């Protein structure tokens, strides 16, 4: 294709992309109007049946236009998720008047470019007010910043699909009066980053956070004679490589984060599990009210009495109240050998009857129960449609 003809086609594509963005913005505005109606009439945020019907209709229309069903499904999963999260944020803001701040000071691990930094950007992009990032070098420093009003919020990684729970964060939660007010799941795409264009065979020193090395252990085993140096955050690892400017030194981090430090990505998808995600929690000094229309999670910590079957008895309380437990984690109680605190994530709102009944029952049979937070669930399960429905006329 001649250069002039190619330029014309690209210009048309650019105009179409701009029009798509305008239409998406218009669609988001309309979904916010839908949220206003849901607020007035106490209607749940998600209408799964409506979502399924919409997706089937769009798949059929897409096929008539020459688009395959997978493409249409993936595209509208993202659009529907955005709509749900925006509506949830809107309802949460209305339920907590006065909580919106002109400036959100948020403490997180590392500096610009760290995974916690990227998660912070993602979460607060849906919240009103300007964002001020407060980078910290440890989880204890993060908690301290919020407890002592040097920050309004903290974003903390709590678990990863490859390396599991982050125990140090659970231990911090055991001793703080801060409340969990939100959550988000962020994809972790580990990439080998270098300051100068080089080959993997030349790498002799590799910097990363200990959790990152755990998540990429298979890749490290393949590297061979490479010195592994742990560092306090992913952003510190990237900064170190940027400062050294050597072709035999690399860091593991995100490609987006590496670009902030002028680093090049020479290999991607380093994690043992290719679907690698981290779950983050957001904490603040005061709890939030979650509207009953919004899917909620409640996190609590408890200590059971020292008798056989005590934990099972406590978990039966959740079953009897038809509450789904999504996470159970145990951590030792400092100063009490062989005794443990149990952290539980469960679906449900503390304002709802079943959760209230369960908490009352747990307080009656355990030594200690504390609600660490009730917060909107941001794990949006994709809308599913049966293939037969999508393809039938």
TrEMBL record:
Keywords: Amino-acid biosynthesis, Aromatic amino acid biosynthesis, Coiled coil, Cytoplasm, Isomerase, Lyase, Multifunctional enzyme, Phenylalanine biosynthesis. Catalyzes the Claisen rearrangement of chorismate to prephenate and the decarboxylation/dehydration of prephenate to phenylpyruvate. Its EC number is 4.2.1.51, 5.4.99.5. Its main location: cytoplasm. GO terms for molecular function: prephenate dehydratase activity. Gene3D superfamilies: 3.30.70.260, Chorismate mutase, Periplasmic binding protein-like II. SUPFAM superfamilies: ACT-like, Chorismate mutase II, Periplasmic binding protein-like II. It comes from Alteromonas salexigens. This is Bifunctional chorismate mutase/prephenate dehydratase. It is found in: Cytoplasm. The keyword Coiled coil applies. The gene is pheA. Residues 6-40 form a coiled coil. It holds the Pfam family CM_2.
């Amino acid at each position: 294709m001649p250069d002039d003809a190619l330029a014309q086609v690209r210009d048309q594509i650019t105009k179409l992309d701009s029009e798509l963005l305008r239409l998406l913005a218009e669609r988001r505005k309309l979904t916010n109007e839908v949220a206003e109606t849901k607020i007035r009439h106490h209607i749940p945020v998600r209408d799964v049946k409506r979502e399924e019907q919409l997706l089937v209709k769009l798949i059929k229309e897409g096929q008539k236009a020459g688009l395959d069903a997978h493409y249409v499904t993936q595209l509208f999963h993202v659009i529907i998720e955005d709509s749900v999260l925006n509506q949830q944020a809107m309802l949460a803001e209305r339920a907590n008047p006065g909580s919106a701040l002109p400036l959100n000071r948020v403490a997180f691990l590392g500096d610009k470019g760290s995974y916690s930094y990227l998660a912070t950007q993602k979460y607060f992009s849906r919240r009103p007010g300007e964002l001020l990032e407060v980078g910290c070098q440890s989880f204890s420093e993060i908690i301290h910043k919020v407890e002592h009003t040097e920050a309004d919020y903290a974003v903390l990684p709590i678990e990863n699909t490859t390396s599991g729970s982050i125990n140090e964060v659970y231990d911090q939660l055991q001793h703080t009066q801060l409340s969990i007010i939100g959550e988000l799941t962020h994809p972790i795409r580990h990439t080998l980053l270098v300051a100068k264009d080089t080959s993997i065979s030349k790498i002799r020193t590799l910097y990363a956070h200990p959790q990152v090395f755990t998540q990429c252990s298979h890749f490290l085993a393949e590297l061979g004679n490479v010195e592994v140096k742990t560092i306090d955050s992913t952003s510190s690892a990237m900064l170190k490589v940027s400062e050294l400017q050597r072709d035999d030194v690399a860091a593991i981090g995100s490609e987006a984060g590496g670009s902030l430090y002028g680093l090049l990505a020479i290999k991607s998808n380093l994690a043992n599990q290719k679907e690698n995600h981290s779950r983050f929690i957001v904490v603040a000094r005061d709890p939030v009210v979650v509207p009953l229309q919004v899917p909620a999670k409640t996190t609590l910590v408890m200590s059971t009495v020292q008798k056989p079957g005590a934990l099972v008895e406590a978990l039966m309380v959740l079953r009897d109240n038809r509450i789904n437990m999504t996470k159970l984690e145990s951590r030792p109680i400092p100063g009490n050998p062989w005794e443990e605190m149990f952290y539980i994530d469960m679906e449900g709102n503390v304002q709802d009857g079943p959760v209230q009944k369960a908490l009352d029952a747990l307080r009656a049979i355990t030594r200690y129960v504390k609600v660490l937070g009730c917060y909107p669930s941001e794990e949006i399960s994709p809308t599913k449609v049966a293939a037969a429905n999508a393809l039938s006329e």
